[in-house]
Design goal:
The chain is α/β, with parallel strands linked by helices. The protein has one domain: Hexapeptide repeat proteins (UDP N-Acetylglucosamine Acyltransferase, domain 1). The protein is 29% helix and 26% strand. The protein has 5 helices and 18 strands. Strand 17 and strand 18 form a beta hairpin. The radius of gyration is 18 Å and the shape is globular. The N and C termini lie far apart (58 Å). InterPro entries: Hexapep, LacA-like, Mac_dom, Trimer_LpxA-like_sf. Keywords: Acyltransferase, Repeat, Transferase. This is Acetyltransferase. Pfam families: Hexapep, Mac.
Length: 201
């Protein structure tokens, strides 16, 4: 197996020239993206870099990632400023995902033993985020985590374990606070109806 194949399989690997060249290419694309004022041009740059995107998505600059080609965005994806994705393994998002500013997703991992870690060996674990997920600002998601559908993650949370669908979760480490309920839905439907009436929509 090549070092890239080992990386994507979640095995120990060492960055070789192939991987270093990919990261240099990604760094160049991101320099263009982060300095480009036109949203359409920025979107085109990301379509050429990322592993896959929906038809509609938006990432506000600045944005950082290691490779980009292991990031997959669903439909109607939005990320606010300073998104960081370390995509040594696949990082996949469902539809209608909204990320607050300074959200970080780290698929990269390093050996606990210092002697081995100091050799440069590392590994990765994939991250999966379901559909209809909102993460508040400064959320951190560690490698190997799956977040279900219809989830709200509170600002500043550190997600170290899987989060089931249909819940509000927060904290360090992140934990489920309560389920999302029909009462939540009814409240926000009512608020939206009041907004439409007030604004003539």
């Amino acid at each position: 197996m090549t070092q890239k194949e080992r990386m994507l399989a979640g095995q120990l690997y060492l960055v070789d020239e192939e991987l270093a060249a990919e990261m240099r290419h990604t760094a160049g694309v991101l320099r263009q993206f982060n300095s480009e004022p036109e949203p359409e041009v920025r979107a085109a740059l990301l379509r050429g870099l990322l592993g896959g995107t929906g038809r509609s998505f938006k990432i506000e600059p600045p944005f950082r990632c290691d490779y980009g080609s292991h990031i997959y965005l669903g439909e109607n994806f939005y990320a606010n400023y300073e998104l960081i994705v370390l995509d040594q393994c696949d990082v996949r998002f469902g539809d209608n995902v909204m990320l607050g500013p300074r959200v970080s997703l780290f698929s990269a991992g390093h050996p606990l033993d210092a002697d081995i870690r100091n050799t440069g060996l590392e590994y990765g674990k994939p991250i999966t985020v379901g559909s209809n997920v909102w993460m508040g600002g400064c959320v951190t998601v560690n490698g190997g985590v799956t977040i279900g559908d219809n989830v709200v993650i509170g600002s500043g949370s550190v997600v170290t374990h899987d989060i089931p669908s249909n819940v509000i979760a927060a904290g360090n480490p992140c934990r489920v606070l309560r389920p999302l309920t029909d009462a939540d839905r009814a409240h926000w439907q009512q608020e939206a109806a009041r907004w439409r009436a007030a604004c003539g929509r």
